[in-house]
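Hi V.,

You were right to ask for the full record rather than a summary. Here it is.
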Amino acid sequence: MNKTNAFNHYKLNNSCDLHIFNSNKFKTNLIQMVIIEKLAAETVSANALLPYVFYRGSNKYPTTREFKIRLNELYGAELSISVLKRGENQLLIFSLELPNENFLPEQTPLFREGLKLLYELVLNPAMKEEYIEQEKDNLQRKIGALINDKYSYAVERCYQEMCANETYGLYKLGKKKDLEVITKEQLLKRYNSIINNSVILFFVVGDVEDNRVLSDINTVFDFKHKQSKGINKTELISQVSDVKEIKDKMKVKQGKLIMGFRTGITRGSKSYYPLIVYNGILGAFPHSKLFQNVRERSSLAYFANSGLETTKGLLLISSGIDFNVYQKAREIILQQVEEIKKGNFTVQELDWAKMSLQNRFKNIADRIDGLAGHYLLGLINNNPESIDKSLDSISAVKREDVINIAKQIKLDTIYFLDRQEGER
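Predicted structure:
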């Protein structure tokens, strides 16, 4: 049992990094392979396409159906892929969750067999022309479908405008027009570059023996790789010259008001924990100022909350409002920001924010994928910490720490998704 909530770090024979969290609290074991690429306009679309092409089949299992049959043979193992953006990093994540061998009726080398399937997915992909073309179409539809979720669309538009001159403004799945022209040869070239040169991390969480895990991964993932130095090259901007105001109009029944702020603080900063407590008081929870004052007391919003992008140092306040209360809602939202700057929050508000954050971190510790995700985000920000350390750091935040943070927050962009003229 892992009593310290800490990951153990090992260097693999292929120069990749392995992080193991040993715990018997889960009935499954998690294996993750994470590829980290610097977000860039010329590669973002091809990078996003690759995992979906991988999932279509490998040379040993040339169809998705055969992949799934093999997963069923591994006692119903679950394999998933995801493409994320954390700061100015694009993450390709391959996750395999397997039953703990200790719960199986007979001794089965399930962990190693799972590794072999993961190897097939990433290191031995079929890369058929028909798969590439089909997944290009699927990804283009996925990008196009963003507009159907008006809240997600508004958030993405605010980020795009706020970071128009920064690579963070790129969408994590790339651009439809760039996907159209990607050829098989170009995708293969991109694939080889990633496998040979990108940062590649392995995470294992579960009831495992470190030495066996290290031996199995070294045996199965025996490929040439030159690990890049330094994971995160995100540009951190803390100063704002002029506040941008952007309005888009389309057929919507509810306005979406999104306000983007620069914090100048990342997860690797000493001010990270005061920042997340500040966000807890401002808008992260139902007891926060935004929900209570903008939605409940003033009845100006259908929802009002705030969230952080702590690798890029951004804070977003999001609200859904009637079109005719735009100015009033904007005014009251900014008033809540000012109130915290002035120290106008109670001891109870501070305690509630800290308690809610601690509960959130404890919930992360109860999820096998949550533990891996928490540690990965710490690694990206050059400050990997255990859940226990995070809980202690939240407890240590004082009132004056929150006020100091509030004074650093700077409004950068106001985005409003409005209705078209003539719409009711």
